[in-house]
Amino acid sequence: MTRRRVVGVDLLRVAGRAKRLLEPAALARVAGFVGSCAAPGGGYRGRGGVAGDVYYTLFGTVAGRIVRSAGERRALGPFLERHPPELLDLPHLAALIQCQRLLHPLGIPRRWRAPYLQAVTRFRNPDGGFGDAPGSARGSAYALYLAVLCHEVLGVDLPAHSQAAAAAAELLEGELGSPTASLSRVVSAMLALQSLGGPVPEVQVGEHIGCRAHPRAPVCDLLSTAVAAFALRRLGAPVRGPAAARTAQFVQSLWDESGGFCGTAVDPTPDCEYTFYGLLALGALEP
């Protein structure tokens, strides 16, 4: 599979499909929880937090739009502007850029594009990949995946495109050849490679994706389940039939009475990040 596809658009579209599986009362419960995570000064809180956090704000904003939460949207712009991009790590920077795109449907204003792109470029490696920190000796699959998302939103190609695709392929091969492969790293490398137009070894990826973060993880978790189901759908091999029904039951078992979703059966605290992943998993499983 070599056709380039926009990952960020697919994430929003697939997560939005969850509305087809949830009754109005269920959507209202989720909306109520997401609204309760809104911070007074703008943005959304993480678990146990008081002030808004850019990372959690992305998940709260997306989930809130899907279920039509009454979260405070007018404060989102000023909240985002209080975060200088050059001071953020890559996950928070990627969240900031994607939040700005959600806030500006016609495109991020030009005055911010160059500073955002320059901030992302700080994480680039000489081999064309991206690292978890500026100046990292080696790239990571997750960092490259986030860089792909940022460049998609900013409407520019990754520099040294062929090098980036080669870096993604090498990272994916390394994970698939490891007995302790991380599902999140496998999916990150696969999605980055697919977006960059590289050939993805579909059968091998499918064999490695499951509902656990890695082979030694003690329990299945919601994030791994969501990204696995989403990745399989993008590969053209969505989970269907009895397997989809069982997976949906697992996802719903992590739905808290508050309306939010929890990460695992042994972690009973819901937050807006896992609530987004709950919606993404259900959307990926929707026929």
Question: How would you portray this structure in words?
Answer:
The chain is 55% helix and 0% strand. By secondary structure, the chain is mostly helical. The protein has a domain at 7-201: Alpha/alpha barrel (Glycosyltransferase), CATH 1.50.10. Helix 2 runs antiparallel to helix 3. It is globular, with a radius of gyration of 18 Å. Residues 203-210 have low confidence and may be disordered.
What CATH first level of the domain at 7-201 would be assigned? Answer: Mainly Alpha
This entry's quaternary arrangement is single chain
How are helices and strands ordered from N to C?
HHHHHHHHHHHHH
| First-to-last CA distance | 22 Å
CA radius of gyration is 18 Å
Layout of secondary structure:
Layout: H1 7-16, H2 24-36, H3 54-67, H4 76-81, H5 90-103, H6 110-121, H7 141-154, H8 161-176, H9 183-195, H10 202-208, H11 222-234, H12 241-253, H13 272-285
Helix pairs in contact: 1-13, 2-3, 3-5, 3-13, 5-7, 6-7, 7-9, 8-9, 9-11, 11-13, 12-13
Characteristic terms for this protein:
single chain, 287 residues, mainly alpha, Glycosyltransferase, 13 helices
